[in-house]
Amino acid sequence: MPGAxxxxxxxxxxxxxDKFDKPIKxxxxxxxxxxxxxxxxxxxxxxxxxxxxxxxxxxxxxKQWDEMLRTLLSRAPIILPIIWLAIFSGTRRSQYERxxxxxAHKEALASSYESYRNxxxxxxxxxxxxxxxxxxxxxxxxxxxxxxxxxxxxxxxxPTSKIFESIDIEKLKQLKSIFxxxxxx
Length: 185
Prior knowledge:
By secondary structure, this protein is mainly alpha-helical. The chain is 74% helix and 5% strand.
């Protein structure tokens, strides 16, 4: 790989790497907006009374479990899409960041290849084996498809499937038995 070729590859990898800057920023912003929205929405859902003069903040007091469950279910159509958006944007940001790192690594390798080759020549040894190994490693790194790093690692499962996978039936039965016992008031 002559110097011009490695410089050309480094430049191409830099262009590819830089293409991921904007999506990373967009998905990061989307993630933080979704989290902020959840925080603000949950604050207003729990807020019972707010006045400036005299300054007073009071939160909703829980009454019965069934009432709390109905309240939560009535707000689910608003909360669940925001949660999904936060998970989706976090996953996408992670994918773009991973690809960004892969191309940054390829850029660094391609731009430093020529200097590695010159250093091997300056060792004053039979450097043919080292040069062949360097070329082999460079070709391996260049031919590696960066999107392979994402295979199977960044699943797109919805939050509900993750919840259902983590449910322990025995613990649910224990909770049911605890809450179904008559109170001794």
